[in-house]
């Protein structure tokens, strides 16, 4: 098998990040539901705000499908979840409880199929679904251009405007089949 890090070192702009940060592995999440909850919490928030809310939710609730369905809405609101995000987390919990979503079911799907299955859940958009592919399933070839950090890094390293998503996706083809690894390095560029 090809070495993703060796391949990415060949990119003139990404190569120095690979050298600086060393090999970055893709490890599947121990708890897929927890990781999806984290992605929902992170939606459209700054890193700092999301981390504070995530910490409070995990301190005050059992972050399992049953735990999130049983959690008092007031507790979730006090932890920082909006009514809308509370609904989204509970939608995910119902899908996991019913067995319609699981690591095994998602792992058996192609990237496109998994994105389609996840985005059927109200509150899970393409960004959240792609985060699941990278951080829950450890898929090697996902390019989450929907992510602001990815677009900022592409602007800094390659001179794209942040709204040039199609051009970024086209540029990212050079990293196939390791676009998830490239994305991890792009996030490092703006951390």
Q: If you had to describe this structure to a student in words, what would you say it looks like?
A:
By secondary structure, this protein is an all-alpha fold. The protein folds into two domains: 4-26 and 143-190, Orthogonal Bundle (Endonuclease Iii, domain 2), CATH 1.10.1670.40; 32-135, Hypothetical protein, domain 2 (Endonuclease III, domain 1, Orthogonal Bundle). It has 13 helices and no strands. It has helices at residues 4-9, 15-21, 32-42, 47-60, 65-70, 73-79, 83-97, 103-107, 111-119, 126-135, 148-158, 165-172, 179-190. Helix 3 (32-42) packs antiparallel against helix 7 (83-97) and helix 3 crosses helix 10. The protein starts with a helix and ends with a helix. The mean pLDDT is 95.
Key structural traits:
191 residues, Endonuclease Iii, domain 2, single chain, Endonuclease III, domain 1, globular, 13 helices, 2 domains, 63% helix, mainly alpha
Counted beta strands: 0
How would you sum up the major sheet? Answer: none
> What would you report as the Rg, rounded to the nearest angstrom?
17 Å
Order of helices and strands: HHHHHHHHHHHHH
CATH class identity of the largest domain: Mainly Alpha
What is the tally of helical segments? Answer: 13
Estimate the global geometry from the Cα principal axes.
globular
The name of the CATH architecture of the largest domain is Orthogonal Bundle
The amount of beta strand, in percent, is under 5%
CATH topology of the largest domain: Endonuclease III, domain 1
Helix content: 55-70%
Query: Mean pLDDT score, rounded?
Result: 95
Unreliable spans are: none
Look at the structure and name the CATH superfamily of the largest domain.
Answer: Hypothetical protein, domain 2
Number of domains: 2
Structural class: mainly alpha
Distance between the termini: 30 Å
């Amino acid at each position: 098998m090809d070495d993703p890090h060796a391949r990415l070192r060949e990119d003139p702009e990404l190569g120095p990040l690979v050298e600086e940060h060393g090999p970055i592995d893709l490890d599947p999440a121990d708890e897929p539901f927890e990781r999806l909850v984290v992605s929902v919490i992170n939606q459209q928030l700054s890193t700092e705000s999301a981390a504070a809310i995530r910490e409070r939710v995990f301190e005050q609730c059992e972050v399992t499908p049953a735990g999130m369905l049983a959690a008092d809405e007031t507790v979730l609101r006090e932890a920082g979840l909006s009514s809308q995000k509370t609904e989204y987390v509970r939608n995910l919990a119902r899908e996991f409880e019913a067995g319609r979503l699981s690591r095994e079911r998602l792992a058996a799907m192609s990237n496109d199929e998994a994105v389609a299955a996840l985005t059927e859940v109200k509150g899970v958009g393409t960004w959240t679904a792609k985060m699941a592919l990278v951080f829950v399933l450890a898929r090697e070839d996902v390019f989450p251009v929907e992510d602001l950090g990815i677009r900022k890094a592409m602007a800094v390293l390659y001179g794209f405007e942040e709204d040039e998503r199609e051009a970024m996706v086209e540029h990212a083809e050079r990293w196939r089949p390791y676009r998830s690894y490239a994305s991890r390095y792009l996030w490092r560029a703006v951390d």
